[in-house]
Amino acid sequence: MKFVPLMFSALLLSTAMTTPAHAIDFQSVGAEPAILYDAPSEKGRRTHIAPRGMPVEVVTTYGDWSKIRDAEGKLTWIMTKMLTPKRNVIITAANAKIRASADDNGAIVFTADKNVLLELTDPVSTAGWLKVKHRDGQSGYVKATDVWGN
C-alpha cells in the first residue's frame, strides 16, 4: 500500500515531463469593438470595451468564451467569436524605431509612440526583431522588446 502513492507520483511526474508546453496564443479583437466581462457570460459585469485590433493573449477557452490577458496584464472574458487570429502588436516603448532591416544599423522607416497599434506581418522573430506594418502602409522591423502581443 505504501508503494501505490509513490508509483502514482512517478507516473504523474513522467507524464508531466513528456507533455509538451503550450505556446502562448496571441490573437486580436476583430473588426468591431468588443465588450469585456468579468465572467464567461453576458450576465457578467461589463468591465470595459476593447477597441478593434487590440492584441490579446488567450489564456483559456470555455464554451463560446475566451479568458484573455491584455497588455496591462488584466484578465477578462470575451466572446470567442469577437477574436481574430490576425496578429497585431502594441508599442510599449516610449519611442520605438521601425527600421528597414532587422538590425540596429538599419535605416529608420518611421517611429511609433507608446500604445500605437501595428500589424504583425511575420510572426517569426528574426534575431529579436519583428516585421510589422502601420495602417498607413509603412512597414519595417521593430525590436521584439519594444512591443507586446508577440
The arrangement of helices and strands along the chain is: HEEEEEEEEEEEEEE
Q: Could you tell me the strand content as a percent range?
A: over 45%
Termini separation (Å)?
49 Å
Count of distinct strands: 14
| Overall radius of gyration | 20 Å
Shape: elongated
What are its keywords?
150 residues; mainly beta; five-stranded antiparallel sheet; 14 strands
Description:
The chain is mainly β and 150 residues long. Helix content is 11%, strand content 47%. It contains one helix and 14 strands. The strands form four sheets. The chain has a five-stranded antiparallel β-sheet, with no helix packed on it. Strand 5 and strand 6 form a beta hairpin. The longest helix has 16 residues. It starts with a helix and ends with a strand.
